[in-house]
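=== RUN LOG ===
request id: a7f3
mode: sequence -> structure
chains: 1
length: 816
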Amino acid sequence: MRAARTLRTALSLLPPVDAPAPREVDVVRVSCLLTLALSELATGGLVAAEPHLADARRIAGDDPELLARWRCQRGNILGRCGDFATAAAELAVVVDEPQWFTTVERCAMLLNRGMVFVELGRPEEAAAAFRGASALAAEAGDPRHLFMAEHNLGYALYLTGDLPAALATMAAAEEMPADVFRGPSLLDLGRVLGEAGLLDEALSALDRARRACRPRQDQLLRAEIDLERARILRLAGEVAEAAAAARASRERFARLGAAAPAARADLTVLDCALSRGRGLARVLDGALADEAVAVDLGDAELRARSIAVAAEAAARLGRVDVARAALRRYPSDSFGLVVHLRHAYAAALTDVASGRSPGRRLAAAASDLAASQAVSASLDSRAARKVLSLRLAGLDTALAVGRGPGAVLASLERWSSRGLPVVRPPDDPRQAALTRRLRALSQALRDEPSGPGAAGRRMEVDRLQRELLDLGLAQRQADATSHPLPTLEEALDTLAGEGRALLRLFAHEGALWGVAVVGGRRRLARLAGLGECLEVTRRLRADLRAAAHQPPAPLGAAIASSLAAGLGWLDDAVLGPWRPGPSTGLVVIGSHAVASVPWGLLPTLGSVPVTVARSVTEWAAGRSVTARPAVQVLTGPGLTHADAEGRRVAASWPSARLAVQAGASELVAALEGADVVHVAAHGQHRAASPLFSSLRMADGEVFAHELPAGRVRARHVVLSACDVGTAQVRPGDEPLGLADTLLSLGVGSVVAAVAPVADDTTAAVMAAYHRGLRRGLPSDEALAAAGPGSPFVVLGSPWRSREEADPAGSDTFPAG
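=== RESULT ===
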C-alpha cells in the first residue's frame, strides 16, 4: 500500500501519460507504471494492474529497451494470474535480448520464466532457467536471488520425479543466510512433502507459510496456500475440511481476478464432492469447464487434473464415451506422482465402467509407485509414499475380492512394496555429527530426567530428530538395484514344500479380511469389524504392558483375565475360519488392525512355528541357510540378567564371540561382520518417531536410522529387548520400527519382542532358542520350541544353520 502511494506521487510529478516527454522521462514513467502494476496486482488483482500496463505500453512505443522491459513485466504479471502460455512468450525477451537488462534483472526474470515453465508442465526447461538464474545471482553476489534460484531448482527437480534431489536442494537453500520472505518457499516445501506422502509434515510447512503471510500484501499467496492445504487434506481423507479450504481459496482468487488459480481451486472443490459421491453430473460439467479454462490459458497441469476428475465422474455416471474421450485428451507432460496416480485411478474406473479389466493399468501404477520409492534412501519416505496409492490399491483389492482368493493374493502382493532395493544412503558427516549430539542428550536426560536444563534438552532432542529426518528424506539411494523375487505361484509352492500355511490379513469395506492357504487350499473370508479389531489389539497391548510390571493379586488377576479375553477373541476371529494344525507352521502377513500382535500367545498357536512377513514373495526369497555361521553376542547396561544371558547364548555356539557391555561401534561392526548377531540390551520403541527407536549400549543409544545401511552382512539378528519388534504402521500397512529397519537394510530374519518381557524369562528363552538353532532348526521352529507363550516373534523369513558347507554352494533353503 505504501509503495503504491509513493509510486502514484512520483507519477503525479511527471508529465501525464498522453503528453510527450524526453526519453529520460519516459524511462522513469515506464519504470514507475510497471512497478505500480505489480504492486496493484498483489492487492487488487489483474483488473487493478492492467490499466498501468496499458499506460506503460503507450509510452514505450517502439523504443526497444522500454518495450523489452514492458514485455518482461507483463509476462511476470500474467504468469502470476495463470496465463502461462502468454507469459512464457513475453518472458522469452530476457533470453533473446539480454542487453537491455542488468545481471540482477536477468536473474529475476529467469526465476519468473522458470516458474512459468513449472506451471506449463515443462520441468526440465524450468530447471535450466533456475540454474541460469543461480549462476547470475552468484556472479552478482546476490544471496537473496541465489536462495530463490536454488530453492526453485529443487521444486523443478521434484517435478522431474527426483524427489531426494529436490529435498536436498531445498534443504541446502534453507541453510543460506538470505534475508528473504519465506512464505513462497514454505509453500513449495509443503507441495514437495505432499508429493512424498508426508502429509502431516506438508500441512505443518503450509501452516508456517500461512503464518508468514502479511495480512494485506500477500492475498494471492494466501489463496495458493489454502489451495495446497485443500489438496493435502483431501489426500489425508479429511474431505469436508479440504472442501472448505478450497472454497476459501476459490473466492480469494476470484476477487483478485486470477482465472487459472480460481479454476484450480474450483476443481479441488469438485474433487472433494466426487470423493463423497455427491452431485456427479455437476462435478462432470464443472471439471470440463475448468479444462476449457486450462486450454485457454495454457495451464497443462490444470488441464491434466481436470481431465482426471471429469473422467472419474463420467465413469461413475456410466457415461463411458465421455470418460474415454476425456482421457484421450490427457497431456503427455509429467506433473509428479500425485497427478499421475490420480489419472491412473480415473482410467482404471473407466475400464471397469466399460466392462474391461484394469489389471494391466493397476499393475503399471503399482510399478510406478515402487520405482518412486526405490530412489529414496529414507525408510520414512518410502513408507509414506504408499498413502498416495491407497485408492488404487483399494480398487484393485475390491475387484479381486469378487474373483476369489488367488486374485486377492495377487492384488495384495502387487501393492506390498516388495522387492525394493536394500537401503543404501550415502555417507553424511553432518548426519553423523547430529546423531552423536542426539545420543549425548538422550543419555543426559536418562541420567537426570527432571533436573535443571531437562526441558531445554528435550526441546533440543526434538529439534535434532526433525533435522535428522529432514536429512534422511533428502538422501538419494546410492544403489537402486533390487534382487529378483520369485513369482507368487513359485512362492506358494515353496510355502507348501516347507510345510507352512499362509494367512494374509487386509482391511476392506470397514472390516478385517483374511485370505489363507492351508494344506494347498485357498480360502477367503471376512473376519471381523475393523473398529472392534483395532480396539481389541489396543487393549491387548495395554494389558501386556501392565502384566509385565507384575501387579499385586487383585489387579494382576483382572489384567490376566482381560489379556486372556483379548487373546481368545483374536484367536477365534482371526484363526477360527482355518485353524492350522499343530504340526503346520504359519506365515502371517498382517494389517494395521493387528500390528505387533504376539502371535505365539494365541491359544491355537502356542506351539506352532510362526513367521511374520511383509510379503509372501519376500518370505520365500529371504529364506537362508548359513554353514558354520560366525556368531557375535553383545550385551548392554541396565539389565540384571543380560551378561549371564550373553554367556549362555555364546556357549551354544562353538566359536561365538562375546562382547560384554558393548558399545555402539561394536554393534555396528557385528552387523557388518557376523552372520548371526544377538543383542541383550534395553530397547525402546518410539511410536511418534519410529526411526528413533533404539537399543541402549554401554556408550549410549543406537538409533534405528543410523544402523550400517548397505553394509549389513548379518542374515539373522536377535534383539533380546522389550518392545523393539513393535512397529508404527503407516497408511498402506507400511511398518516402521527397529526390527523393520533391519529387514530393509538386508537382514533376512529378525527375532524381537512385541511387548515387555521379564529379564529372567528372556534369558531362559534365548538360551533354549540358540540351542535349537545350533541343532539346525529353522528360526520359527526353534522359537516355537524354546518360548511357547512368549511375546517374541520371528520377522521376515526363516533362517537356519548348517554344520558343513553345501558342496553346491547354496545358501538358501532347498526348494520345496
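=== NOTES ===
Residues 805-811 have pLDDT under 50 and may be disordered.
The first strand starts at residue 500 and ends at 508.
=== END ===
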